[in-house]
TrEMBL record:
Residues 1-169 form the Dynein heavy chain C-terminal domain. The chain crosses the membrane at residues 22-40. Gene3D superfamilies: 3.10.490.20. It comes from the Eukaryota. Keywords: Membrane, Transmembrane, Transmembrane helix. This is Dynein heavy chain 2, axonemal. The keyword Membrane applies. PANTHER family: DYNEIN HEAVY CHAIN 6, AXONEMAL-LIKE (PTHR22878:SF68), DYNEIN HEAVY CHAIN 6, AXONEMAL-LIKE-RELATED (PTHR22878). InterPro entries: DHC, Dynein_C, Dynein_C_barrel.
């Protein structure tokens, strides 16, 4: 019920405002992949380029959400994700070992920035993002949303693969 109220609140505020929201709660969308595709399509139209040449650059915020006052020129700020299987070092903006007994931790806001012809760095961990903790999904609905590049810190990206590190949109099944 709490998620439903937050979802209704997000869309009601968006409908009332002339400008798009500064922060988007990605979990509030029934089909977040469609929202992200629409953001890429909007950027492609503005820049008059093919949407197929665009991909995401992910910039994890180092400031408090209250300091994000205006939406970005291109892309969106996404909030409300959870990190499972690792911790996050805000100072160095990279993955670290989780605190003892901490299975999941809130993740900072991420700037999803559309960029053209981007190459992936080998020092980055392509962190899968899922709708919910059951990664296999449900009948007819896969759980995978998007791969998000995160700095792997002092270890190789393979370390986080073995840990099963992932981002989650929701902690509820």
């Amino acid at each position: 019920m709490r998620d439903l109220c937050q979802r209704v609140d997000q869309f009601a505020r968006w409908a009332e405002d002339v400008q798009p929201p500064v922060l988007f709660w990605l979990s509030g969308f029934t089909f977040p992949n469609g929202f992200l595709a629409a953001v890429l399509q909007s950027t492609a139209r503005q820049q008059r380029i093919s949407v197929d040449t665009l991909s995401w650059e992910f910039i994890v915020s180092t400031v408090d959400d209250r300091n994000l006052l205006t939406p970005p020129e291109d892309g969106v700020y996404v909030r409300g994700l959870y990190l499972e299987g690792a911790g996050w070092d805000r100072k160095n903006s990279c993955l670290v070992e989780a605190e003892p007994m901490q299975m999941v931790c809130p993740f900072p806001t991420i700037y999803f920035k559309p960029v053209e012809n981007r190459k992936m760095s080998k020092s980055m961990y392509m962190c899968p993002c899922y709708y919910f903790p059951v990664r296999a999904g449900r009948a007819g609905r896969p759980s995978f949303v998007v791969g998000i590049e995160l700095r792997s810190g002092d270890v190789a990206p393979d370390h986080w693969i073995k840990r099963g590190t992932a981002l989650l949109l929701s902690l509820d099944n």
